[in-house]
Amino acid sequence: MRVGVVDLGTNSTRLLIADVDDGKVDELTRRVEITRLGEAVDAGGRLLPDAERRVRRCLDAYRHDLEAFAPDRTIAIGTSALRDAENGVQFLHEIGQEYGFVTRLVSGEEEAELTFRGVLSDRRLSDATLVVDIGGGSTELTLGGNAGPVFSRSFQLGCVRLTERFLASDPPTPGELERSAAYVREELPALEPVDAVGVSGTITTIAALDLQLAEYDAARVHGHRIALTAVAHQLDRLAALTTAERTRIPTMEPGRAPVIVAGALILLEVMTAYRLEGIEASERDLLHGAALTAAAV
Questions:
Q1: Cis bond before residue 193 (omega within 30° of 0)
Q2: What predicted TM-score, i.e. pTM, was given to this entire model?
Q3: Any residues with CB less than 8 A from the CB of 260 and at least 6 apart, and which?
Q4: Separation of alpha carbons 162 and 159, rounded Å
Q5: What is the fold of 2-108+290-296?
Q6: CATH assignment of 124-281, among 3.40.190.10, 3.30.420.150, 3.30.70.100, 3.40.50.2000
Q7: CB-based contacts of 98, cutoff 8 Å, min separation 6
Q8: Mapping DSSP to helix (H, G, I), strand (E, B) and coil, where does residue 254 land?
Q9: Predicted confidence band of residue 142 (pLDDT cuts 50, 70, 90)
Q10: Which residues contact 18 (CB under 8 A, 6 or more apart)?
């Protein structure tokens, strides 16, 4: 079956169109655009009209691919920003009506489990592998192996949320960074992973920076192992730059530059808390897990 998946994320709106057969997800096209749907949701509790318009413009641009590849079913997934916003359910309903998508607002735990399933779609996992998904509004941690997750939980630790709460200066001050790091440390549960896989734009961007790529290359990023020391180095480097300076880094999406410091900080705190010497970057994530689910309906 050919399926389309739209991820209406806090920081980005993503599209995957894939053929799904016997548990395998064969990508036909994948697109991402930074839309900041969750802008100011943490403080104000509502989606802003400008943020809604950005998402609609993005979806209008995705129409061409949806018409060209003609998926049998397209599902739109709502995550952290839509869970938190008072008008999130209404916006998701409107998107379904306007674009003809089946819509689904997933809980944090469902998001974590779909991401775990997506990671498993092209690889096997050792028992007690931690899958880390650093989003704009939340971070999902899922522990498990080939048999499935044994622990999954969503935390209010997204890169947009932490940037808006703690990192007001540009570049952030040492005090802002430490307050943000302390907040992350307080939220993390006691876990004992033996290995880790990371998904999301934050982690794939850090992988691309570690690889010193001149332009983003998903094939090289997928499976790249990032050392703890490399994450610390990239955080120090990025935190010393202004947002404008970060946008000039090769492989840095301009829309990710304002929130990449918070994302790298979350990653470093997670790896430090669980004594992880490295983490493997994965291009397989929530989109692929949702594609498998959509094909099974």
A1: no
A2: 0.95
A3: 159, 202, 205, 238, 246, 252
A4: 5
A5: Nucleotidyltransferase; domain 5 (3.30.420)
A6: 3.30.420.150
A7: 56
A8: helix
A9: very high
A10: 2, 3, 5, 25, 26, 27, 28, 288, 291
